[in-house]
Amino acid sequence: MQITLNINREECPLDLDPRTTLLDALRNHLGQCGTKKGCDHGQCGACTVIVNGRRINSCLTLACMHEGDEITTIEGLGAPGALSALQGAFVRYDGFQCGYCTSGQICSATAMLDELREGWPSHVTKDLTGEAALSDAEIAERMSGNLCRCSAYPNIVAAIREVAEGEG
Amino acid sequence: MTAHHKMDEPDRRNRLDAMAQGIVGVGMDRPDGPEKVSGRAVYAHDGQVKDMLHGVMVRATIAKGTLLGIDEEPVKALPGVRAVLHGPRFLRNPAQGAAGEAPVQGSAEIAYFGQPVALVVADTFEQARHGAQSLALRYDEAEATVAPGEAEAETPEDKQSATGDLDAAMRDAAFSVDRTYTTPPHNSAPMEPHAAIAEYRDGKFTVRASCQMVKYNLDELADSLGVDAADVHLLSPFVGGGFGSKLGISAEAVAAALAARELDRPVAVALSRPQVFEATMRRSETRQRFRLAADADGRLTGVGHEVLVSNLPGETFSEPATQATPFLYRGENRVIGHRIARVNRTCAGSVRAPGEAVGVTALEIAMDELAQAAGVDPVELRRRNIPEEDPSRGVPFSSHMLEAALDDGAERFGWSDRPKGGTRNGEWLIGCGMASSSRVNLLNDSAARVTMNRDGTALVETDMTDIGTGTYAILTQVAAEMLGLPPDRVETRLGDSDLPKGAGSGGSQGASSSASSVFLACERLRCEIAERAGCAEEALTLKDGHAISDNRQQPLAELLQEPLSAEGVIHPGDAESRVRQASFGAFFVEVGVSAVTGEARVRRMHGSFAAGRILNAKTARSQCLGGMTFGIGMALTEELMHDPRDGHIVNRDLAEYHVPVNADVPQLTVNLLEERDPWTNPVQAKGIGELAICGAGASIVNAIHDACGVRVRDLPATLDKILPGLPERAGREG
Ligand code: FES
Ligand code: FES
């Protein structure tokens, strides 16, 4: 089927099998391989992209459901020489080792900080109606959908904390 | 120019310390970082090419038998399907680490549930997946053995040893422990599933794959395909984690290459996550009996360690769980026993720190039990049992840092004023535990080429890999240090089989071996520069692109009329047998055990480690964080479950096989101790990637005991094992 996806502010016309996930459309049809496949089952977060400002697992959604949506992938957040604040912090804090989960971590963290700013509570938030504090526990809880087998977790939390505090 | 060096004698020159650039050891950011954080790093399945087809592997769904037939036709008739492939060259299981030849091949005989037996290739991934799911296989099923306890076990003579009289030592002991510990099978679960993209042109294969050890993988792949290694070009510049599972070539790379040749089109094959669980190496489950005999002061007089592990019939690898037992603690009466059960389960092989990961963990739980029995502080018990020399081989230690690590760790953690075990904090019972860590230190043959250009840049080249371990960073640093260049003037190229053959990543020898080869190449280059500058190499200072000698400073470019290139090759030698080499460390941890559910959570965890010269403080620390987290997984959640009927792995995905998530891991602290071990290699670095898992799980299990009195001897320590022991203490307010 013919569809057009808006990826990183660019219109991308595609002719796809309707079974194609957003993840496979990005990787196999557009050659945008920054978004990774770790499980294809919504269990690891490696494929996280930002759709209309919200983080989602791109392996769990079909590409044809996203015509007209604004899709942002890791390639759209920054590039070597022009890294986003989070990307730069991940480098400085060594918020990765093999780097395979990293695209997902950074997309996830980018949208997560918006969620925090907008006051969304999480499982560890004490007061559901008040503001969520920017504690390590909050960051860790909200980033637990993104697995990292290299376990850069403490560094991921530190990198996100620095960026969030810098903004706050 | 090639400089060879064999490690027969200790190297006490500590040459890196005499260099002027001051970049080795510094926690420099990874040069490959910007590419990784921006999604530009090209992993195996990212090197997509025009006209590429997609292949999906098909698995066997019986534990043992013969594949009678494959109903290809209906699948071939599906839209987009190009081929259904199978046959004698398909891999039954991945190659073991450093095999350098094809593993068992052929899809006709089935040895375990989940064995890859066929490949469906189609124009798109969706079509190939549908074809693979539709493929019907016909079998002649045979009686399988899937439970290690029921299987026949081999007792290889060279894996048994006994000195003195352990039975007598146990009889005469003031305090003793005789317990059996069990650990379940594990999966490495790297975040990048095993994948390959193969092309075939003019009789030559180009394969992008996810490999830990390119020089061996090249030979394994060529041998599997039945071609000359010269006709295969293997590329693995970025690897999304390995942890042992990518030591040897695996099924998808061979299948992709066969398909590319057959169809004359590039073919990409990636294992699905369930296939990673079923068709790549698992760590064998272990049953480990420990006998510890001690005198009235808690000094060991005897150590017995007898293990039962498993693997497929005919496989040479068997989990070396007793590897550190012969040298970690004193005791003159010793028994080592090792049996291998032959079962129809997914092939067993290396998973991060084969041997010590589970062996030291069981030993360190046993030591905690001994400390309790003897009424000695667990740290003190270990200090009292540090041997003067390797008690089994009678050779000296190259250096011994266990006591330093214990003291440093205890101090930093605040061991002496830890909360009293069982202190109640709301729902949580608090407890602390500790464990020693140790891992044998290895060196492997490794080669690298270093080229200095006239523009003041240098290029480091080797087929060595960076699987997240920091190779790009550390090789850049070693070359920058030796040649006196800012690190941004040095480029490191890795993971290409056309480059000099490096050690590969595995067994924690990659960093030290490949860094040594770069060091040797640079030393050779320094000699050449010194000659041109008219001084002795030792008198030459290289810094910031300048050569300084006899108070004369000149830009390096002036000394280079043309690019200057040298190769360095390190070889292991007699140092291996003349001394016992190991890295050491200590873990300290505080847990909370829920008095309501029995759930255990790590509240804080510290590790102090000594692993020779630290080449990059930042990446070395990250390796330790990773190891400690593997320990958290091993202690609390990770367990492959095999169906008792057919051995199939029931929890073959990341929703059911629980690797630690961010919220399971507190802000771990790590301290790296300074050490120069002259026997190891010319850069005096030792293995660190695996050290931090060896015993980590024990510190947590010991802390759980401290918190609630429940001694878990069957890992992981899930709530069902803790809860029944709780009620009596749970009501007590601290
Ligand atoms: S690949 Fe989408 S969650 Fe794992
Ligand atoms: S960096 Fe390797 S999985 Fe996260």
UniProtKB/TrEMBL annotation, chain A:
CDD domains: fer2. Residues 1-77 form the 2Fe-2S ferredoxin-type domain. SUPFAM superfamilies: 2Fe-2S ferredoxin-like (SSF54292), CO dehydrogenase ISP C-domain like (SSF47741). One of its GO terms (cellular component) is periplasmic space. Keywords: 2Fe-2S, Iron, Iron-sulfur, Metal-binding, Oxidoreductase. GO terms for molecular function: 2 iron, 2 sulfur cluster binding; metal ion binding; oxidoreductase activity, acting on the aldehyde or oxo group of donors. InterPro entries: 2Fe-2S-bd, 2Fe-2S-bd_dom_sf, 2Fe-2S_ferredoxin-like_sf, 2Fe-2S_ferredoxin-type, 2Fe2S_fd_BS, Aldehyde_Oxdr_Iron-Sulfur, Beta-grasp_dom_sf. It comes from the Bacteria. The keyword Iron-sulfur applies. The keyword Iron-sulfur applies. This is (2Fe-2S)-binding protein. It comes from Roseovarius spongiae.
From TrEMBL, chain B:
Residues 489-499 have a biased composition (Basic and acidic residues). Residues 38-143 form the Aldehyde oxidase/xanthine dehydrogenase a/b hammerhead domain. GO terms for molecular function: iron ion binding; oxidoreductase activity. SMART domains: Ald_Xan_dh_C. SUPFAM superfamilies: CO dehydrogenase molybdoprotein N-domain-like, Molybdenum cofactor-binding domain. Residues 489-513 are annotated as: Disordered. InterPro entries: Ald_Oxase/Xan_DH_a/b, Ald_Oxase/Xan_DH_a/b_sf, Ald_Oxase/xanthine_DH-like, AldOxase/xan_DH_MoCoBD1, AldOxase/xan_DH_MoCoBD2, AldOxase/xan_DH_Mopterin-bd_sf. PANTHER family: ALDEHYDE OXIDOREDUCTASE MOLYBDENUM-BINDING SUBUNIT PAOC, XANTHINE DEHYDROGENASE. This is Xanthine dehydrogenase family protein molybdopterin-binding subunit.
